[in-house]
Structure formats: structure tokens, C-alpha cells
Amino acid sequence: MGDAAQKATLKEAFWTDERYVRASWVNVIAMIFHELTAINVVLAYSTKILSGIFPEDTEGFNARDGTYMVGIFNFSGSFLSILTMSYFGRRPLFLGGHSTIFILYVLMGFFTLYEYDIMVLVMMCTFLVVYQNTSGPCAWAYAAETCCDASLGVALLVLYSTVFILNLTTQ
Question: Where is it found, in Gene Ontology cellular component terms (predicted)?
Fold first, then answer.
């Protein structure tokens, strides 16, 4: 987009310039769904979630150990994303990732309801690997590749506003 990206106004980016309108709105919506995966909730409250599941030492395993596993899976999943972002297209990563995340959350709810405690942790760790290889890097890369400067700023404002609202409502 070069110089044209620098000169687009908010009005052009979101309403009048056909070169930017679709990409601008797609990225705003993508950023909302990116945060509605609840990645920040899982990372911020993993100890609290797991302490309800593993309140005491369970065969040598406790909530702190589960939190370490969450961190390790999140960290290692992010390294794998280098390969997935290079090999797969953005659309399959977005659609497949969000579909898989939906299924993982349904399974996590099922395992929580029927008290399959270790499977809740397995689903959390699987979610983190899927997120880090799909929506996690893809939303940022897609926005940077397709938005002009004005709409990229709005997309990131929407992203952080969604994070703020989620933090207010999940405490």
C-alpha cells in the first residue's frame, strides 16, 4: 500500500475508499473474535481455575504444576506458529482455528461438568497450542498486511478495548 496507506483518513478507510473499506471492517471484527477466544482469561486465571480442580496434592500434582504446564504449552506453541504461519493461509488458520477452539471449549465444559479433572487441563493446554498457531499470530499479521495505517490503529484500539471489557467482566 505504500504512500497511499499513509494518506488514508478514517472516513476513507471505513466508508468511502473501496480499496480499504472491506479490509478495515474485516480486521475490526477479526480483532474482536481474536480476543473473544479468552486467551487472556485462560492465562491470567489459570492458577485460580486449576486450584478449583486440583485443590490439594493429587498424586503429586497440584494447581501450580498445572500452571507451569499451561506456560510451557503456551510458550512451545508459539514456536510452532512460525511453521504454521508460513505453510497455511490466513483464512484456513482463522476459520479452522476458531472452529477448533469452539470444540475445545465445549469439551472443556463437558469435562468440567463431569469432573474429568485432568482432561480440563489437557483441553486448556491444547487450546493454547491451537490459539498460538491460529488466531494468536494470524490476527496481528493479517491486520498488518491488509490495513492502511488509520484502520490498523482502529483495529488495535478495538482489540485493546475488548481486552479491557473482558478484564472488567471476568473478575
Answer: membrane
Beta bridge partners of 61: 58
Cβ-contact 98, 127 below 8 angstroms: no
pLDDT in tens, 89-115: 888 999 999 999 999 999 999 999 998
pLDDT, tens digit (0-9, with 9 covering 90-100), for 9-54: 889 889 998 989 999 999 999 999 988 888 888 888 888 888 888 7
Task: For 82-146, give the DSSP string.
Answer: HHHHHHS-HHHHHHHHHHHHHHHHHHHHHHHHTT-HHHHHHHHHHHHHHHHHTHHHHHHHHHHHH
Q: Is residue 103, in this structure, part of any structural domain at all? A: yes
Half-sphere exposure of 32 (CA within 13 A, CB side): 7
| Domain-located, residue 135 | yes
**6 in a domain, yes or no?**
no
| pTM of the predicted structure, to 2 decimals | 0.85
